[in-house]
Amino acid sequence: MHTRVMRSIVVLCACSAASSAMAQDWVHVEVIRQDGGCAPCCSGTELSIDLDPAEDHTFALSSCARRVNITTSSSTVDIGRFTFTGGPGAFPLDIVLGTGALNQSDSPTTAVGDDWEGFDATDIDDARFAGRIGGSLTGSILVPEMFRFDVDGAVQAPIHAGYSGNGGGFVVEAGAITSSGWIMVDSGNLKRVRTDAGGIYASITASAGSISEGVFASTDIGTTTSPISITAANFIDTVQGDNIYADIEVASGDVALIDASDGIFEGSVDAVNISRQYHNDYGTEGFFVYGDVDIQLTLSNSIRDHFVVTGGDFASSSQIHVKHLADAAELKIKKDGSGVGGSLLGDMYFSGVLGAQSLIEIDRSLAGTLSFDGDGTNSLKDDISILGDLGAGEGLTGQVILNADATADEAWGPGLVKFGADNDPSQFSLLPVPYYDNKSSTVGGGAVGLVPYYCHYKDCAPVGTKVNEAADGLDGLGACQQGFHALRKGSMGNPVDGPTIRHYGPIGQAGTGKPFTVKEKAITDTTCNWTDVTSGFTHTLHPGGDERAIKISGPFMPGYDYLIEPKVDSGGSDYLYCAGLTTTTVGLHDDDFRLRVYVLQDLTLSGDLAADDIDAWIDDPVDTTLDGIVDNADLVDVIEAVADSGGG
């Protein structure tokens, strides 16, 4: 007790000496004592002192000090840096920038002075602060408890509180927050951070609580080269700015609203949901960006309302990893009024399904990967709509993966993948599901694959004549049974180009050997005389960068049937598997590819050359000489081929 009193007297004397030489402008510090009925504290003024503008000072307070008021002679006076030590232990010390009692409401007080170098009250266990500075904060504020602080200029230094004040909470409103400042509360909620004349360029943290109202910038949040972090333990209501460059993280709760009202979003979001905490009013919450989005979004649960990008693209470097697009939620990548944006270029991974009555709508192109796990029944419970101009190379140019976790017996679902707007006469859907017969080239070049991926016979080269083996009677076709999926024609004795076999989803190869076998027999051989000729054939995985394809090369000769059987047993050493999955390796659907190679002049496709091939040419002339002209030379070619074969 005596030590603290003596320190106060020393400070008082020193300050009195200083005040005798003061200029007209001053900073006034007044310390009011606690009224304890003189047992042990008597009410009154402990200290009343005038300081020179911008003068730094340390105040050793007595145990009876109850409130510190800091004022200035005018709005042009700068305030130095203050350090407070000692102080009370039985009750809080209020530090007020301004007159009167501590402002515990969520409303601004009258501004004091110009710039301020801040203060340090960390030596006092229970110190509380509120006030308003007329200029900028140029030095840190370090205080156990914070209420509302207004900075008419810029926050240029850290503001760090141990915990937030009750009532008005922890509120910082400023003209701007520069990269030299940051705002942190160790315990309790940070209610609101707002700027009204500039951006927010420093990190904001509620280490053990929530940002209960949000972070609002009148211009940008962060920069492309210096994104900021916005972190809370439990919940963040709103993050709003023109352009947002930020890493937003909530350890165990939700983010209700992210709104880049005039520009782009670059950064990350890591939370449980995008939704309003403890509310069911999911009408206005979500992620809204009016420009390009470059994001790493990780949610342990769901997008529960909106994810809308307008007038920009979902960048190729962007990724979403979430559980659901919840029932009745929406995900839209839209063009603006001038036709800018509208493409999903990056990847979105859902560890659940597309919810019922939800909506995915993409205005231009789905060029990335859109992946859904299963739930034991369906992957798509509602529609995916792609409105792009297929003639301009838009539409489904990338990949949709269904049942990405390879759930047993998973179905596509009732949802469809649609092209064109509702009520548009040109609208169509991929049908029949899951093994639709639309060629990729007619929808933009991409595909929708249900795991395990089936062979997309219509996309193969040569084009397959079958779509669904089970429906077309070729599923499980025995080696001794007749049938083929596609055919090529060539001249007698000259090999033809091998097939490129495509699937509904991306494929990979395990091992370095041949993940297939090739067998051949003469077309006229109706017995089971297949010969294994795999050793003479090679393969190229992903020819031309096509991740859904494998090309088989070798001596494919006219007059022969070829049976190409992929190895799909993941227990083997060399096999083909479904790529792009979120689970363990799964082999492709066990689909063989049967290629019949005819002689050009075998117009009846019988496997023999005979007089009826001449009749067939007369009925329907074709170019058998491959000179680009249909004329009598082709008829002579057929007649000579039949004669040479002895089939005349």
Characterize the structure shown.
- This protein has a 33-stranded mixed sheet that branches. A 5-stranded mixed sheet has the order 39-48-46-42-43, with no helix packed on it.
- The chain is rod-shaped, with a radius of gyration of 38 Å.
- Helix 3 (611-619) packs antiparallel against helix 4 (632-645).
- It has 4 helices and 48 strands.
- It folds into 5 domains: 26-157, no CATH class; 187-290, no CATH class; 293-451; 457-599, Immunoglobulin-like; 600-648, no CATH class.
- Residues 1-23 and 278-282 have low confidence and may be disordered.
Profile the largest sheet: 33 strands, mixed
Q: Structural class per helix/strand content? A: mainly beta
How many beta strands in the DSSP annotation?
Answer: 48
Mean pLDDT: 90
- Report the end-to-end length measured between terminal Cα atoms: 127 Å
Poorly predicted runs of 5 or more residues: 1-23, 278-282
Bin the helical content.
under 10%
Strand content: 35-45%
Helix and strand arrangement:
Layout: H1 2-19, E1 27-33, E2 44-51, E3 57-61, E4 65-72, E5 82-86, E6 93-97, E7 119-120, E8 127-133, E9 141-155, E10 159-164, E11 170-177, E12 183-187, E13 190-195, E14 204-206, E15 211-216, E16 228-232, E17 235-241, E18 244-250, E19 254-260, E20 265-271, E21 286-289, E22 293-299, E23 302-303, E24 306-310, E25 319-322, E26 324-325, E27 330-334, E28 343-344, E29 347-350, E30 359-362, E31 365-366, E32 369-372, E33 384-386, E34 395-396, E35 399-402, E36 417-419, E37 428-429, E38 447-450, H2 469-472, E39 486-490, E40 500-502, E41 507-510, E42 516-522, E43 531-532, E44 538-541, E45 549-553, E46 560-566, E47 575-578, E48 593-599, H3 611-619, H4 632-645
Parallel strand pairs: 3-5, 4-6, 5-7, 6-8, 7-9, 8-9, 9-10, 9-11, 10-12, 11-13, 12-14, 13-15, 14-16, 15-17, 16-18, 17-19, 18-20, 19-21, 20-22, 21-24, 22-25, 23-26, 24-27, 25-29, 27-30, 28-31, 29-32, 30-33, 31-34, 32-35, 33-36, 35-38, 39-48
Antiparallel strand pairs: 1-2, 1-4, 36-37, 40-45, 41-47, 42-43, 42-46, 44-45, 46-48
